[in-house]
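Notes taken during the Thursday session

The instructor put the following on the board and asked us to keep it in front of us for the whole hour. The protein is Anthranilate phosphoribosyltransferase. We were told not to look anything up and to reason only from what is written here. First, the residues (367 in total):
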Amino acid sequence: MLELPYYTKLVLQRPPQLSPRDLYDAITLIIETLASDSNDSVEVYVPIAGFLTALRASGLDLKAAYIAQAAEAVLQYSNVVKLDSPFSSSNVTTIDIVGTGGDGQNTFNVSTSSAIVASGISGIKVCKHGGKASTSNSGAGDLIGVLGCDPSKVNHRTVPQLWDDNSFLFLLAPFFHNGMKHVALLRKLLKIPTIFNVLGPMLHPVSCVQKRVLGVYAESLGLEYARAAAMVYPESEVFVVWGHVGLDEVSPIGKTTVWHAKPGNSSQIDSFELEPSMFGLQEHPLSECASLGPEENAKILTTMLDGKYHAGENAIYDYILLNTSVLYCLCNNNQNWVLGVQKAEEAIHSGRAKNSLTKFISDSQAL
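Then, after some discussion, the predicted C-alpha cells were revealed:
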C-alpha cells in the first residue's frame, strides 16, 4: 500500500494531481492507520495532519467528486442498517434533514425540531441522522438526550426493530461510523476545518431514505454539495439549502438558496430561492432564534409541541414551521409552502408530532 506522503505530494503539485479515487485511497489509509495505532504517536499524526492541511489549502475537499469519494471511503467502515422491508407502506416517504454545521450562528435546534414536527404529518417518516455539538452549544444528539432518549440503544442492530412502527427515528452518528471515531482526536488537535467537517450529511447509515434536506455553511459549497449528494445518494431527491445570512438551514430572515438534485442525475442541478413571506410567515432576526443550550432548548420545544403557540407568535416556532414546510413539500413533490406550514401546525396542535417523539423514546428505551 502506498504511504500518505505520496498523496500529499500529488496535492502539492500545481495544478494538484490528486484524483477523487486517490482521495478514497488516502482516506482509507488514514482510517486504517489510526485504527491500528494505539500510541497516538507523532509519527502517525504528522503525515495525516500534513495531508489534510494540504488538501484543505488546495480546495479539492470542497469539490463534488472528492466529497463523494471521501464519504464512500468512510462508509466502508460504517455499520450500515439493513432492512428486510424498508418501505413499510407505499404511502410513506422517508426523509432526513441535517446540516454540515460550521456556520457559527449557534441557532436553535431547528433541524431536529422540524424533523419531529414533520413526523407528525401523515405520510412522512423522518429518520434523522446527527451528532452532538461541535461548533454550537447544542447539537441534535444533545437535545434528543435531554428529551429522554438514550441514543446508544439505537444502532444498526436495533433500527430494524423500530422501523415499521415509528414515524420518527434518531440515529446518533458515532454509534454507526467507526471510521469517523478514529479521526476524532486528530480533528480536535488540528483545530482547522478538514474534509471530515463536511461529510456528516453524506453518511446516513440507512440507504433507503428517499428524500433529504442537507444544509451547507457557505454558498460556494452549495452546488458542489448537491452534486456530491447525487453521487452518494443516486436514488434520493435532495434539497441542499443555504441561508444568505450564513446559515446551514432555511433562514427565518432574508433569502435561502435551494439546490435541487433529482434521482439519477448528478449533472443537472436546479436552484431557486425562498424567503419567509413565501410561507406566509414574518421574518425574525437570528438573535431571536438563538440556542440556549440543550436543557433550555428542550423546554422550549416541549412547550411548542404542547401547542402553546401559533404562527406569528414566536420566532423559534415560526423558524420550525418554515423548515418543516420544506420537508413536507419535498416529500409531497410540490412547492406549496403555505400549505406546508398549515400541515406543520396541524401536526403540532393535533398532538401527533409530540406522540411520534414520545413513541420513539418509549420504544427505544424498551430495547
